[in-house]
Write a structure and sequence with these properties.
- It is built from 3 helices and 40 strands.
- It has a 12-stranded parallel β-sheet. A 10-stranded parallel β-sheet has the order 12-10-8-6-4-28-25-22-19-16, with no helix packed on it.
- Strand 36 and strand 37 form a beta hairpin.
């Protein structure tokens, strides 16, 4: 089948925390890297059957999607399972991948066996996959906690508890402890015709009763509902949560759904559908959210001082997790791949080979190609006169600074 890459590698997902810890500087908690991911978990992620997830998901542990579900790219640090008749884009797993019968998938990269169910298709058109790097997710956990720390610096305008978090909520910053919302409750975020920002800083857990619903009304063009939750988030059966939640703990809500926001948790996530973080129903776009800043206890959509000085990109060695020694370590005779780099500022990157670094081991390398805009590279032929593999070094540039020097290994014909 085309577009199925059977390559063994250990993969995971990393998020940079540069700029979060500098006191007095503006902090952006909605980086482009975050807003592209509908869910990020330091534990496992489970998506319920027949759910639709508008974004990538990344989990430190296992990832599973139920039958008939529709998810974009998946990055997991352990095994990944795709239910029958499900759809996903590219999958990067630290262990085995199992794809159910009749499912549609993109490229597969696993640290273990790959099992494809009957009639599995691979004709899905995918958005670019998130960067895949070697990491234990410590950076992802740190970014979630750093976002919570920035939110905690904002003084509360109102206190909130299970009795006040009912009915219509005006814009502002709310502070409270653990909260339980009664079943079948309708909570309305009313912007009164203005741009609306609702921030909830909770020191404890939050439980949403079964059948409860959230909505935004009378809103302008720049709006956000942000939950800073100090414990687990439990969503009752059939509830429809709204907003982006930074959760110090697990998210449980297999038959619940989320709209106008994403889930970032230090624990496991079990959820149904996750709708777009932006759009008409949410009264905000993902690009607008990336302009949301926090500084010295104040917050705004870009009206505060400029964001911190440029942070250089980070480049990662490859192939991920090992140095190849055999021709069979590569998927094709015409071998190549894509270089992986990340930029916390969301800048476009240019990929540059370090002069004189191609074939440093001493092999003869032919027809090397590198696309500076995409990082895609290829080598058509390499005679392994010295060893079974060779390499080149490269950097990524964000228009202002170079990254660290990374090394890309590849196999030679022996």
């Amino acid at each position: 089948m085309k577009n199925i890459v059977l390559k063994t590698c250990l993969t995971a997902f990393a998020l940079s925390v540069a700029g979060f810890a500098n006191a007095g500087e503006p902090v952006k908690i909605f980086t482009k890297q975050l807003t592209s991911h509908a869910a990020i978990s330091a534990g496992a992620i489970s998506i319920a059957a027949d759910s639709i997830v508008d974004g990538h998901i990344a989990s430190q542990a296992a990832a599973t999607t139920g039958a008939g579900s529709d998810v974009q790219n998946i990055v997991s640090g352990a095994a990944t399972g795709i239910g029958a008749a499900a759809k996903t884009c590219d999958i990067y797993a630290g262990a085995a991948i199992v794809v159910g019968a009749g499912s549609t998938v993109g490229a597969l990269s696993a640290g273990g066996a790959i099992t494809l169910g009957a009639l599995t298709q691979s004709d899905v058109i995918c958005d670019p996959a998130p960067a895949v790097v070697t990491s234990d997710f410590d950076a992802a956990n740190a970014q979630i906690k750093s976002a919570q720390s920035a939110l905690d610096t904002i003084p509360a305008s109102s206190l909130v508890d299970a009795y006040t978090l009912v009915g219509s909520m005006d814009t502002g910053v709310y502070e409270g402890a653990a909260i339980t919302i009664p079943a079948n409750t309708l909570i309305t975020f009313d912007a009164n015709g203005q741009d609306g920002i609702w921030i909830f800083n909770l020191s404890g857990a939050m439980t949403v009763g079964a059948g409860s619903e959230f909505e935004i009304i009378n809103a302008g063009n720049n709006n956000a509902v942000i939950w800073d939750i100090g414990g687990a988030l439990t969503l009752g059966a059939g509830s429809t949560f709204l907003g982006t939640a930074f959760v110090e703990g697990a998210v449980s809500g297999a038959t619940a759904s989320v709209s106008c926001g994403n889930l970032y948790a230090t624990g496991a996530i079990s959820i149904g559908s996750i709708g777009s973080i932006g759009g008409d129903d949410c009264k905000v776009s993902a690009d607008q959210l990336t302009d949301f800043v926090i500084k010295d206890g104040s917050y705004s959509f870009g009206a505060l001082e400029a964001v911190p000085a440029n942070t250089p990109p980070v480049a990662f060695d490859g192939p991920v997790g090992f140095v190849p020694t055999l021709l069979s370590d590569q998927p094709d005779t015409l071998f190549g791949g894509s270089l992986f780099a990340e930029d916390t500022d969301g800048d476009d990157l240019t990929f540059i080979i370090v002069p004189g670094s191609l074939g440093p081991i001493g092999n003869k390398v032919y027809d090397f190609q590198l696309d500076p805009e995409t990082g895609e590279w290829s080598v058509s032929f390499c005679i392994g006169a010295v060893g079974g593999h060779d390499s080149f070094q490269w950097v990524a540039n964000d228009g202002q600074a170079d990254s660290n020097v990374a090394t890309q290994y590849f196999v030679c014909l022996i």
